[in-house]
């Protein structure tokens, strides 16, 4: 994947040194391929000369949020998209720690991937810290972190960080040209703008068909919306029952529209845009937790965009 060259150089250099650190944080925004890197790095770590490596390797342990309920668990078994619980629990960490008491099955190394480490419960973080302080011989922890600043300093201090940079718009466009050939130009342009350097996010935005939303948001920021007509269209385009992914994609797109216009804005308008962007960031953090009415949330998003265009409209 694009953007992984430096991370691979560091990882392979550490493996070749004979002094492999036991804890690693794979840091970067969501959608850069950190999970794929973690699995590929883990497979490189467990490879042993002359020993066949099965697809489902028994020495690679993956800790990730569980399906939200039995129905979602059934979807997972069927290979369908499924909703997950919000956090990785302490029970999951303890199950992994129980495995670490035994020796690896096929070789001398056992990688543990935690994806994402941002979603660990507080009690689970404290339990994990004990393993990082006294790691079992041959155990290596790979913590995928979209927001590494949220990890405890005691966790960060015990790990080496691999950073994954955001891609340029041209690189994200290259990914979309290859992976989303059926999308029209407007949708791809909206996805590139909203992704802010994340090809995974861009592909998710293409699936959400954000082209019409992008056009409406641009109009609101350019023209304002004194009569609320554009906000009504925005609510209709978002839909009466959007899922959480569509709401989050809409909020990300709104923030990207403001960020893209910030440089060319007047000083007064720039301040309004910054205020609106901050409010959109707050809403983005709250949407996964609070049960917002989609129609009211759409009007709030439209109002924040309009406030950046028209000083007399309060957010």
From TrEMBL:
- Which InterPro entries would you find in this protein's record? DNA_Rep/Repair_Clamp_Loader, P-loop_NTPase
Gene Ontology cellular-component terms for this entry are: DNA polymerase III complex
- From which domain of life does this come? Bacteria
Q: Report any one BP term from Gene Ontology.
A: DNA-templated DNA replication
PANTHER family linked: DNA POLYMERASE III SUBUNIT DELTA (PTHR11669:SF8), REPLICATION FACTOR C / DNA POLYMERASE III GAMMA-TAU SUBUNIT (PTHR11669)
Name of the molecule in the record: DNA polymerase III subunit delta
């Amino acid at each position: 994947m694009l953007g992984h060259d430096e991370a691979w150089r560091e990882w392979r250099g550490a493996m070749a040194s004979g002094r492999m650190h036991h804890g690693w944080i794979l840091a970067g925004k969501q959608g850069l391929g950190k999970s794929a890197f973690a699995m590929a790095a883990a497979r490189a770590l467990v490879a042993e000369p002359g020993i066949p490596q099965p697809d489902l390797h028994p020495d690679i342990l993956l800790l990730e949020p569980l399906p939200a309920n039995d129905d979602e668990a059934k979807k997972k078994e069927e290979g369908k998209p499924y909703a997950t619980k919000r956090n990785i629990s302490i029970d999951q960490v303890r199950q992994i720690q129980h495995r670490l008491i035994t020796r690896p099955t096929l070789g001398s190394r056992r990688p543990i991937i935690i994806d994402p480490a941002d979603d660990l419960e507080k009690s689970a973080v404290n339990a994990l810290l004990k393993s990082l302080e006294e790691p079992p011989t041959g155990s290596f922890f790979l913590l995928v972190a979209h927001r590494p600043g949220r990890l405890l300093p005691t966790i960060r201090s015990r790990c080496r960080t691999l950073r994954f940079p955001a891609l340029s718009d041209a690189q994200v466009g290259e990914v979309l040209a290859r992976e989303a050939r059926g999308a029209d130009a407007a949708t791809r342009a909206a996805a590139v703008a909203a992704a802010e350097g994340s090809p995974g996010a861009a592909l998710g935005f293409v699936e959400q068909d954000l082209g019409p939303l992008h056009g409406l948001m641009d109009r609101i920021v350019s023209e304002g919306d004194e009569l609320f007509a554009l906000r009504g269209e925005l609510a209709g385009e978002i839909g009466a029952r959007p899922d959480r992914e569509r709401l989050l994609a809409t909020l990300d797109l709104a923030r990207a529209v403001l960020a893209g216009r910030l440089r060319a804005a007047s000083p007064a308008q720039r301040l309004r845009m910054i205020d609106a962007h901050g409010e959109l960031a707050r809403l983005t953090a709250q949407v996964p937790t609070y049960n917002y009415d989609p129609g009211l949330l759409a009007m709030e998003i439209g109002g924040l965009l309009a406030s950046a265009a028209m000083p007399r409209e309060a957010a």
